[in-house]
Inverse folding.
């Protein structure tokens, strides 16, 4: 039986156990109290950027009247469950950015983590659009040494890649699966690996991809 290492505790527990999977989290997430978030939200801005499920979780009990621009269908699903008004959903920040630049909106609130990439807000600011970044959660690296061999490794974020590679080298023969393109690019910075990611940034798509490649 092939062995898989999942480097995030967010990997689905109901995954079809046709492979042996070890879940060893290489990052930990601390969601901030809603009071800390609310105190930073401007009352005159009604356009919001959410690029992660952690941010969506952090704001679930906060009343926000306005439109949301979202990265990831899983993130959008959480926001839909909060009855948010979603104006646009994309799989990647680049597509979201293109759509945002087509609007006449000049001010956004960006709900983010402490290690979130700054590419999207930086480009918006270069185009004369103000972005108020508000941290909603903290990602901490929890690196550890891995001694077992795995046929495949799953990374759900660039932070997990950074944490893993700080103490381990990825074997060249190991298949790498990531949640999306940005995380795949983080892996490729460490070597010429076989890296796969789904077209849609959902866990269902990722699981289907893993099954397809490991069955091949």
């Amino acid at each position: 039986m092939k062995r898989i290492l999942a480097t995030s505790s967010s990997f689905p527990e109901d995954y079809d156990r046709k492979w042996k999977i070890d879940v060893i989290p290489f990052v930990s997430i601390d969601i901030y109290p809603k009071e800390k978030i609310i105190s930073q939200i401007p009352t005159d801005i009604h356009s919001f950027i959410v690029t992660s499920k952690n941010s969506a979780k952090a704001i679930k009990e906060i009343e926000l009247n306005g439109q949301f621009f979202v990265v990831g269908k899983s993130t959008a699903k959480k926001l839909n469950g909060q009855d948010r008004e979603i104006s646009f959903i994309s799989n990647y920040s680049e597509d979201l950015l293109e759509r945002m630049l087509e609007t006449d909106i000049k001010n956004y609130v960006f709900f983010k983590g402490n290690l979130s990439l700054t590419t999207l807000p930086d480009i918006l600011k270069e185009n004369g659009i103000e972005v108020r970044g508000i941290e909603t959660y903290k990602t901490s690296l929890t690196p550890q040494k891995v001694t077992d061999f795995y046929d495949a490794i799953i990374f759900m974020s660039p932070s997990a890649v950074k944490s893993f590679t700080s103490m381990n080298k990825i074997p060249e023969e190991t298949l790498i699966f990531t949640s999306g393109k940005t995380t795949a690019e983080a892996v490729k910075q460490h070597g010429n690996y076989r890296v796969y990611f789904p077209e849609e940034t959902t866990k269902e798509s990722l699981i289907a991809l893993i099954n397809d490649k490991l069955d091949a």
